[in-house]
Amino acid sequence: SRHAVALRSYTTSRDTTEERAAEEQRYIEERRRIASVTSASNRQRAIEAGITRYRWSSCLDNRTCERCRRNEGKIFSHLNAPKGGHPGEGDCPDGACRCVAIAVIDF
Prior knowledge:
The protein is α+β, with helices and mostly antiparallel strands. It is elongated and about 60 Å long. The chain is built from two helices and three strands; from the N terminus they run H-E-H-E-E. The chain has a three-stranded antiparallel beta sheet, covered by helices on one side. The protein is 50% helix and 12% strand.
């Protein structure tokens, strides 16, 4: 019947929207995981090289979260995470922190 076709069409479009939302959520979670693993690996290599401090570097575009804007340019220790974690470890609104730690080398 005409109603069955309409219901099937609605259900299919709703399922597609739900599937897209689920896929987007999986993508965001994977981006966060990769950023966190990369950050931890870079931090460990820096510590092994004797570099214990870094300068926070943010993208500073319209997707940069407030925490990352606040930390921009500040010096932190690899040994003590700032509130919210090191660069690359935050739950930024766009899915993953895009910030990086720039080594501070003392001579």
